[in-house]
Amino acid sequence: MIDGARRAAPGRPTMESGNRLPLDLPLPPGWARRRVGEIATVQPGRGTSRSRVPGALTRRQLRCSNLGWGVLDLAKVATTELTREQARRYALLPGDILLAEASGSVERIGRPVLWNGEIEDCSFHSGLIRVRSVPGVDPRYLCHALSYDALRGEFGRRARGVTGLKHLGSTAVREWRVPVPPPAEQRRVADALDELLGRLDAGEAAHDAAYQGLPRLWDSVLNAVVSGRLTGDGITDGPVPGPATGPLLPIAEVAEVTAGLRTPKAADRGSAHPYLGVANVARETLTLRDVRQVTIPEHALDSVRRHLVEAGDLLVVRQNGSLERIGQAATWHGEPAGALYQNHLVRIRPGRRLLPRFLELVWNAPATRRRLQDQVRATTGSLSVRLEDIKAITIPVPALPIQDRLVRAAEVWKEHVSTTGALVDDARRSGPALRLSILAQGLSGRLTGSVAADDPTRLNEPTRFPETGYEQQEFDFR
Fold it and tell me: Could you give the CA distance from residue 54 to residue 57 in angstroms, rounded to a whole number?
């Protein structure tokens, strides 16, 4: 969470625009295309200075990192030393528009934010450009017009630079052309866009909150498997009969726990094997797109056979630099065959009293991993858990039919969570196209009736956007 004056929203992707858009059509009567330099003053910012001069003033200074898409992140604001003249020249006033002048990502260049005086005596860095509209030009309208071009990537395409850092430049901003209606119409368009985009912002915030809440829902499902309270319809209240949870037993009593294999020495000849590492294992997830291969000499094959993984084995992260990663585990399903695993992992091979999927659910439950993380020891540059401490972790071991019932209930809930996540994700991903459509309608006079309803050359011209280029994915339970 951000504790600044305004909260930062997740970065919004831009949409490339190679199609005809409403702003390419003739403007409504009374509108004109004007250069930004004709309707506003454009001022590049100043770099940070620490060298004191007589009478120097300390001022807060916004940087590119403080600008999001239409929002300001004011949790961390730098300071600089300015003379009185510099403080006047680079001061921010309510109604000023700040644009990102430079960025390593062309998609972020030119993104504008309207300054409303959130901080007194605030200046701006050379990575930003200030646009201050002249009387008769509504700064809200101008900010919306610049946002439209930024969102569809036009500023990024005009940026220059031979290194990774691209620059827009104040000259390009001065020469930039935007549609400008009469002052009264500017206010009407700005009011309409403020209302519609405010609703969209609220919807996107709700979508983000829902999406971020899904992992917590899945955590509660996993904990309910551990407690035996999970059903396909929900989580039961009150005490659970003993058979539903089973006795708590050390994992070493019901499974074989084996440490991983240290990286074998390189060999020119021998048997090639996939070699699984921590990067391949996450919570209930195996990433097998990039699996390292090792060659085991023929004379060493017998010594590494005990480190082969079989279908149903649980691979557990026991050493990593992140505490959150410790204890994450995924079940191996048998492919590719002949895989080995490194010593930062542990293999748990369930015995006859455990269903592999039940073990995976119980082990990944926060209630279990928290006890495992309590055993973490710090080593040089990493965190790890001893094999003995892993073997001592206790889990509930109910009868196999009860394990099967809990697994089937968990799968029902996983389908619910995954489906909900995909639906919310679809809604979140549609936001940029909807935002562009709203801006296009407003900046071409369609929201306020500047385009007559009986004008087929304008109102009925379809607004076309390119494909968003994404595929619906299953919700990530990691």
Answer: 9
CB contact set of 54 (below 8 Å; sequence gap of 6+): none
Extents of the domains making up the chain? 32-180, 183-241+399-478, 247-397
pLDDT at 163: 67
Helices (H) and strands (E) in the chain, counts: 14, 25
Tell me how far apart the alpha carbons of residues 230 and 245 are, in angstroms, rounded to a whole number.
11
Nearest-angstrom CA–CA distance, 246 and 227? 9
Domain at 32-180, CATH homologous superfamily: DNA methylase specificity domains (3.90.220.20)
Using alpha carbons only, how large is the chain's radius of gyration in Å? 30
**Euclidean distance between the first and the last CA atom of the chain, given in angstroms as a whole number:** 21
Between CA 108 and CA 32 the distance in angstroms is 28
Q: Is 155:109 a contact under the CB 8 Å cutoff?
A: yes
Can you tell me the distance from the alpha carbon of 366 to that of 387, in angstroms, rounded to the nearest whole number?
20
Q: Find where tokens 């394990």 sit.
A: 403
- pLDDT per residue over 95-115, tens digit each? 999 998 887 777 788 889 999
Q: By three-state DSSP, how is residue 281 classified?
A: strand
CA pair distance 130, 136, nearest whole angstrom: 18
Q: The tokens of 365 are what?
A: 């439950």
DSSP 383: E
Which residue's structure tokens are 């991983």?
A: 260
Whole-model pTM over 0.85: no
**Integer CA distances (angstroms), 11 to 14, 70, 74, in order:** 9, 10, 15
User: Cα(161)–Cα(184) distance, rounded to whole angstroms?
Assistant: 40
Closest residue by Cα to residue 385 from 374, 394, 397: 374
Whether omega for the bond prior to residue 264 falls within 30 degrees of 0, making it cis, is: no
CATH number of 247-397: 3.90.220.20
Is residue 404 within 8 A of residue 355, CB to CB? The reply is: yes
For helices 356-364 and 400-429, give the axis angle rounded to 10 degrees: 60
Residue type present at position 315: L
Side-chain-facing half-sphere of 163: CA atoms under 13 Å: 4
Q: Tell me how far apart the alpha carbons of residues 390 and 318 are, in angstroms, rounded to a whole number.
A: 9
Task: Tell me how far apart the 2 most distant CA atoms of the chain are, in Å.
Answer: 87
Q: Mean pLDDT per 10-residue run, the chain (478 residues)?
A: 34 40 68 94 85 79 86 89 90 94 80 93 92 96 94 87 80 94 95 94 89 92 92 69 78 95 81 91 91 85 87 95 94 91 95 97 95 88 92 95 94 92 87 90 86 44 37 49
Q: Residues with Cβ < 8 Å from 93, sequence gap 6 or more?
A: 115, 117, 132
Q: Do domains 32-180 and 247-397 have the same CATH topology?
A: yes
Alpha-carbon distance of 98 to 386, in angstroms, equals: 53
**Measured distance CA(477)–CA(40) in Å, rounded:** 49
